[in-house]
Write a structure and sequence with these properties.
The complex is a heterodimer of chains A (236) and B (245). By secondary structure, chain A is an alpha/beta fold. Chain A is built from seven helices and ten strands. Chain A has a six-stranded mixed β-sheet, sandwiched between helices. In chain A, helix 5 links the parallel strand 7 and strand 8. The longest helix of chain A is centred in the C-terminal third of the chain and has 17 residues. The radius of gyration of chain A is 18 Å and the shape is globular. By secondary structure, chain B is mainly alpha-helical. Chain B has one domain: MetI-like (MetI-like fold), CATH 1.10.3720. In chain B, helix 3 packs antiparallel against helix 4. The longest helix of chain B has 39 residues. The chains are: A alpha/beta (236), B mainly alpha (245).
């Protein structure tokens, strides 16, 4: 499976009647088993781009080719759980075919066992984010879209969840698109990094990371980071 | 407990007022109770209560289901809202009496005319409430359901309906009281039985104990319906919400 994004532009008309360019031409493709990470300043149009890719916003110029049979797992910036359904029901409603064993494993990994029958209003934001992750994983997605899934989690948990995302991605051939502010998360997870400009967003630089995720040593991560900190030539 | 106390207070005020005003205008609680017992023993009370209750049920169900569907449609589809809005304003402001009289003239003094007239009176308020509820639906949850490819029915049942439940409960509660008020007028004007008919008779005879006997019994029935049906539904629909202080 392959995701091909070729957006030539997106304008937004504000309530005052002014038009704003939200996205400049953006073009990239993602293969099964690949993790693409979008990094950019906040407000640059990342979320708009995700909405277009997911088919929630059809008012744009260009094309997004997404296999129609591709199952989508999504973690929104806010957890977007159904407040009137329990944690377990929230996951099962998105993934009705999940087996009890798989669900149990998922809850064990994300440490949600004690919260199965709780309602989202009774959870902390960190817990709610984990439920949103469980829901996205539970559908066994072909396309996994993560919009800052690790924000506002403590470092230890964020690190563990990052490893879990890596494990899931390794287990199944899934196209993963991750939006993050954290360079650390980005270089640990990405096969390819897309650095975005301020609004209207365009891809300033595409950085492939060839070393397999599991074999990235601290030294190599440091080298990649230093390389990213150097100003890219083409943006001048 | 508090409810019982407040009920006792109501009885006490009634009794004291009855002593001041005199039995002709306001009979005391025991006098009314005697009439209720006599009417119940003859079976007339249950016949009239049953007839009224059946009309209320039919008109209420008709108005709620039709009104909810129309309200949902108008909340979702702009064109439906534009087309339906003038009708809605007309129906909202049409006096109940006009609808009832016209229904009896056009369809005769029939059961169908009575029920239709009552339902038409309740319909627009259900539409307005449900339209508001539909407009207030959380778009971000809709998007979530779309992204996760939830089938339409499942999304409606688990994403949309729980959000509409408080509006449905509010509409049911106000609707029940509205229907109950209007049904008596319809019965008074053109039905040969029911609480409204009995009250009409009592009015002609200036029979205050009988009038109070029928209206209070029906008020009690409405109270029971509210406690046993409407409130449990509301409690269930909002059980996920942290308790209000």
């Amino acid at each position: 499976m392959r995701l091909e994004v070729d957006i030539t532009g997106k304008t937004f008309r504000s309530a005052a009647g002014e038009t704003h360019e939200v996205l400049a031409p953006v073009k990239f493709a993602l293969q099964s088993g690949e993790v693409g990470v979008l990094i950019g300043p906040s407000g640059c149009g990342k979320s708009t781009m995700l909405r277009i890719i997911l088919g929630l916003d059809r008012d744009f110029r260009g094309t997004v080719a997404r296999p129609p049979e591709a199952r989508i797992g999504m973690v929104f910036q806010e957890p977007r759980l159904l407040p009137w359904r329990s944690v377990e029901q929230n996951v099962r409603l998105a993934a009705p075919d999940i087996t009890d064993a798989k669900l149990a494993e998922l809850f064990r990994i994300l440490e949600l066992d004690a919260h199965r029958s709780h309602f989202p209003g009774e959870l902390s934001l960190g817990l709610a984010r984990r439920v949103a992750l469980a829901r996205a994983f539970a559908v066994e997605p072909d396309l996994l879209v993560l919009d800052e899934p690790l924000a506002s989690l403590d470092d230890a948990l964020a690190g563990r969840l990052r490893d879990e995302i890596a494990t899931l991605v390794a287990r199944r051939p899934v196209m993963t698109l991750l939006v993050t502010h954290s360079l650390d998360d980005a270089i640990r997870l990405a096969d390819r990094l897309f650095l975005l400009s301020p609004r209207p967003a365009r891809i300033v630089r595409e950085v492939p990371i060839a070393i397999p995720r599991a074999e990235r040593s601290e030294a190599e991560l440091g080298r990649i980071k230093a390389d990213l900190a150097a100003p890219p030539l083409e943006s001048k | 407990m508090l409810r019982l106390l407040s009920f006792a207070l109501f009885l006490a005020i009634w009794w004291i007022a009855a002593l001041f005003v005199g039995a002709a205008k306001l009979p005391s609680p025991p006098a009314v109770l005697n009439v209720i017992i006599a009417e119940a023993a003859s079976g007339a009370l249950f016949l009239h209560l049953g007839a009224t209750l059946a009309r209320v049920t039919l008109a209420f169900v008709l108005a709620m289901s039709l009104g909810s569907a129309i309200g949902y449609l108008m909340g979702r589809v702009k064109l439906a809202d534009r087309l339906g809005d003038p009708w809605l304003i007309l129906l909202l402001n049409l006096p109940a009496l006009v609808v009832i009289v016209l229904a009896y003239i056009w369809a005769g003094l029939t059961e169908a005319a009575a029920i239709a007239a009552i339902a038409i009176n309740k319909l627009p308020t259900a539409v307005v409430t449900l339209r508001e509820g539909t407009r207030a639906l959380d778009r971000s949850l809709d998007e979530m359901a779309t992204v996760f490819a939830m089938p339409r029915w499942r999304a409606f049942r688990h994403v949309v309906l729980p959000q509409l439940a408080p509006y449905i409960a509010a509409s049911a509660r106000s609707g029940l009281s509205l229907v109950w008020k209007i049904v008596l007028v319809a019965e008074l004007l053109g039905r040969p039985n029911g609480v409204g008919f009995e009250i009409g008779v009592a009015f002609q005879l200036f029979d205050t104990p009988r009038l109070l006997a029928y209206s209070l019994t029906f008020a009690a029935v409405v109270l029971v319906i509210e406690t046993l049906l409407v409130q449990p539904f509301e409690a269930r629909a909002t059980r996920w919400r942290p308790r209000a202080a």
